[in-house]
Amino acid sequence: MRAPISVVVAAAIGLSLVGAGAARAQLVPCHGIAEPGFKILLDDIVTGGGGEVSPLMRPLIHRLDANLEQLKLETGLALTVVRCEKRQPSDPTEFRREIVQQLNAHQVVLEIWGMAAEVVDAGTTFHEASIGYALIPVRFYEFNAPQPPGAFEVAQRAASVSNVDALVQLVDRASQVAAYTALSAGTRLMRTKDFLSARRHLCRAQVLLGATSPRPGSPDAMLHRYATRLAAEALDQARAASPAVAELLAAGTTPSCEVTP
Amino acid sequence: MSALVRAALMMVVGLSLPALAHAGIQNVPCDRPFVFEGAAVNVVVLPFSAPRALASQSDEIGRRLAALVQRETLLSIVSFGSVGAVQLVGDPEAGCTPEVVLAKLTGREPGARSPLAAGRGLVMVWGRLYADGDEIYLQTFVRFLRHGVDEAVTLPVGAGRSVTLRPSTQAFACVPRRIARADLDRIDAAFAEADLVRSAPGGGVARQIPPDVAFSYYVTEVRDDWMHIRTHDGDIEGWVRARTDTPEWSLRRWMPELSFVRGVVGYLAYQVARSANGSAPAAYLDLAEEAMKAYMTDWLTGAAVGDAAPGGAQALALAVPYQLRSMMLVLRHPSDAAARTRAIGWLQRARRHVPWSGQALTMVASLRAFDAFQRNDLDEAYAALDDTLGALGLEPDNRTIQEDVQVLLEALVQRGPPQPPPVLTTPTGPTAPNPATPRERYATLDDKLAAIRTLRARQPAPPPVR
């Protein structure tokens, strides 16, 4: 059943996407981020190349919106999805330190943007979609670290112009969206020293990312490693902060979130 | 809301259902949501909507689909005593969302015309319907609860202590499904048929159900796919078609989650009756199990996108039914060891589908502990303690898991001290052999018991009940 999602970092794919991205608008302010609670920002999904509206755009927005509704429902997180009209990041580097600092202060955990485009390669027209994810707390707290990537794009190309449905399936990433949100929430909770709650979110992120069997070297693989490390740290810190936790979750008895049933 | 709709609603407000009555209401304005006061369980169906970001052309088809779901659901749940099915109409952009409706129905916000009484069951169904070219995508969402009641099955483990079985979640997204454009025409046709009140099943037309007006009725008889209804004011009486099952098309085949809805209504009806009367008809559980099984057989019908693999995006849509089936099996056969073994197997399957859920792991552990105490198998009870502590490692802030750890520790302490392996004296000095059983891993339980009590005392108060 599982689709073999083979995502690639946008920088590694056709120049047409990059070129189209450069023509996009900058990060305009998003109203609605001042409300309390964790937030996910959903930016515009734009058409690359400034041409016709891609037939991919509408189903893509629909799936993203449905993914986010599922996330809110199933995690029980007090999570608000904020639609940011006309906000169109051109690439992950636009999430500079001062920008993510401000977003982090407003409890934004994830920002999603995207582009759909028709590209011509060797005389054949394809549909391509590129979705960007900025895990705001990860990006902010690990800004100078080479890994993990706090902001990145994943892209996919449909086999043919008529196979939009297959492309939507490949970019439908409800599990990853849930994992990114959990990882961002856990990263944030680590900084506020709420280690017990952090552990729960980080374990969820670790297991969800691990279940997708990410390709080595991919953003998801790096995030999985990061979640694993941080989840272990959360447990260590919780033990250090509380003798009761240390007694209940003695070192060596609960080393990993990926418990075998 | 039109004056006509308000007037119609006024007529039905305050009507309470007699025992074993079944009632439905259609076209209830979403800004003043409604449930039948006397019903043990109400199913509330919201309009199926298109995403906010799109200019929708699906509003009317979404309303019609919700009406068909309400009617089909009512027909399928009449076996469960006093039940109601409500179809809401409204615009999600104007507050017709599950969050707002739930807040009103449970009294957290004002605005319900008739709120849910304490202890009564509620199943909410809503969804997204999106047409793109010849393809249509449908995704349904479900939430279930009893108002103000912790949804759990408690299992005594001695001296007034009980472990609990609670599902990983009480709300989940069903598998997104792809349907054909032609199905929209079938919805229209089924709706047109369902909108007629006839003098006999399949007989001459008596009259059409008035559009855009709240239409409230009792079900007085069921015959195959037909329900005999009588409006609360007695003005309209006759037969309506509640189900369209043909070889070509069937709503319940098309939406297998309707079987889940039927099953969870049966479970809730059983629990509501049991809480009120101390006992409940076992047949409710048998019918609910049959429905859950049907859902789990067909749950991937027409799956379009998503991931049904263990740990995947739609894992809860399978794990929660497994968990509910286990809870029902234990309720149905509390003293049957074979039933417990079967239920443990289902919980382990659920656990494999949601490996991130500490709650799923502690469910397995709790039932294993109950089973172990029933059989006086302390080694197995200690193995369950291992798993409960593993669950705590996954979700250390989960109050349910914390409570289960404490209960299990207290129950084990009451049975006597653990049995660590004896220290052996060898030529090189004293040595402790590796523990052969879970029971031998613990030198004492007192420190862990003190620790969990400390941890629980420090935890903040739980959030208000749903």
The biggest sheet of chain A, with number of strands, parallel, antiparallel or mixed sense and barrel status, is: 6 strands, mixed
Beta content of chain A comes to: 15-25%
The structural class of chain B is alpha+beta
**How does the overall form of chain A come out from the CA principal axes?**
globular
Distance between the first and last residues' Cα of chain A? 23 Å
Overall mean pLDDT score of chain B? 87
Helix content of chain B: 40-55%
Give the helix/strand class of chain A. alpha/beta
Beta fraction of the residues of chain B? Answer: 15-25%
The chain-level mean pLDDT of chain A equals 80
The count of DSSP E runs of length 2 or more, i.e. the number of strands of chain B, is 16
Instruction: Estimate the global geometry of chain B from the Cα principal axes.
Output: elongated
- Please give the share of residues in helix of chain A: 40-55%
Biggest sheet features of chain B: 10 strands, mixed
The total strand number of chain A stands at: 6
Q: What's the number of helices of chain B?
A: 13
Give the low-pLDDT segments of chain B. 1-14, 52-57
Give the radius of gyration of chain B. Answer: 25 Å
Radius of gyration of chain A: 19 Å
**Low-confidence segments of chain A:** 1-23
Which terms would index this structure?
heterodimer, A: 261 residues, alpha/beta, 9 helices, 6 strands, 44% helix, disordered N terminus, B: 466 residues, alpha+beta, ten-stranded mixed sheet, two-stranded antiparallel ribbon, 16 strands, elongated
Task: Please explain how this structure is put together.
- Chain A is of the alpha/beta class.
- Chain A contains 9 helices and 6 strands; from the N terminus they run βαβαβαββαβααααα.
- Chain A has a 6-stranded mixed sheet with strand order 1-6-5-4-2-3, with helices on both faces.
- In chain A, helix 6 runs antiparallel to helix 7, helix 6 packs parallel to helix 8 (219-241) and helix 7 (195-211) packs antiparallel against helix 8 (219-241).
- The two termini of chain A are 23 Å apart.
- Chain B has 466 residues and is an alpha+beta fold.
- Chain B has 13 helices and 16 strands.
- In chain B, the strands form 4 sheets. In chain B, strands 1, 2, 3, 4, 5, 8, 9, 12, 13 and 14 form a 10-stranded mixed sheet that branches.
- In chain B, helix 2 packs across helix 4 and helix 8 (316-332) packs antiparallel against helix 9 (337-353).
- The longest helix of chain B has 21 residues, at 257-277.
- In chain B, 50% of the residues are buried.
- The model of chain B is unreliable at 1-14 and 52-57 (pLDDT under 50).
- The chains are: A alpha/beta (261), B alpha+beta (466).
- At the A-B interface, helix 2, helix 5, helix 6, helix 7 and helix 9 of A face strand 4, strand 5, strand 8, helix 9 and helix 10 of B.
